[in-house]
Amino acid sequence: MIDTLETLDIIDKKLEPLELRCIDIRYSSPVLSIFIDFPLDAKNDENVAIQDCVRATKELRDWDQLERWYGKSFELAVCSPGIEKPIVRIEDFKNHLGDYFKIKLKEKLDGQKNFQGELLEIEGDERSQAKLKIEFEEKISVVPVSYIQQADCHIKKLNHSEKKRG
């Protein structure tokens, strides 16, 4: 089985000369979707554009490492994160404190598999032990990061009127 975080780091090194980074990978045979963004320390408030996806595709499409991981018969799709940005790494969660998340777990926690709400806090730095505090409709849930199957962040920060509407 391919380690997602290790794979993201390896792809990051390949995309680094383009000043891009890989934020998530989703494989649903035959499509390998690689989501890209600008580095966290980038002084760029713009979103990833189609030109960035084209540059990254050119860099990755003939890279034999992807073939070793996923075989020869995959279709590469390099994508911008879009409105619901996938979040995998702890540092990315930290960069999105105060943002609204939709989270799907691998298994039920306190009787539910789906959580949504504002990310209030992150406890811990190691993925295996880190926990997210999420508030939705005045209820706070604590979700271990290791339980997360998929976490999507809505890019814009919530203002007080949006928080009250949920």
Number of strands: 9
CA-based shape? globular
Q: Any low-confidence stretches, pLDDT <50, length ≥5?
A: 158-166
Helical/strand content category? alpha+beta
CATH-defined fold name of the largest domain: GMP Synthetase, Chain A, domain 3
| Radius of gyration from CA coordinates | 17 Å
CATH architecture of the largest domain: 2-Layer Sandwich
Mean pLDDT comes to: 89
Largest sheet: 6 strands, antiparallel
Q: What helical percentage do the residues reach?
A: 25-40%
Provide the number of structural domains: 2
CATH class of the largest domain equals Alpha Beta
- Written as H for each helix and E for each strand, in order along the chain, the element string is HEEHHEEHEEEEEH
Cα(first) to Cα(last) distance is 38 Å
Number of helices: 5
List the strand order in the largest sheet: 4-9-5-6-7-8
Strand residue percentage: 35-45%
Record the SSE blueprint.
Elements: H1 4-15, E1 21-28, E2 31-37, H2 50-60, H3 64-70, E3 75-79, E4 84-86, H4 90-95, E5 99-109, E6 112-123, E7 131-136, E8 139-144, E9 148-157, H5 160-165
Parallel strand pairs: 2-3
Antiparallel strand pairs: 1-2, 4-9, 5-6, 5-9, 6-7, 7-8
Compact summary:
25% of the residues lie in helices and 41% in strands. It has five helices and nine strands.
Structure in words:
With 166 residues, this protein is of the alpha+beta class. The chain has two domains: 4-82, GMP Synthetase, Chain A, domain 3; 90-165, Roll (SH3 type barrels). The protein is 25% helix and 41% strand. It contains five helices and nine strands. β5 and β6 (112-123) form a beta hairpin. Mean pLDDT is 89; it is low at 158-166.
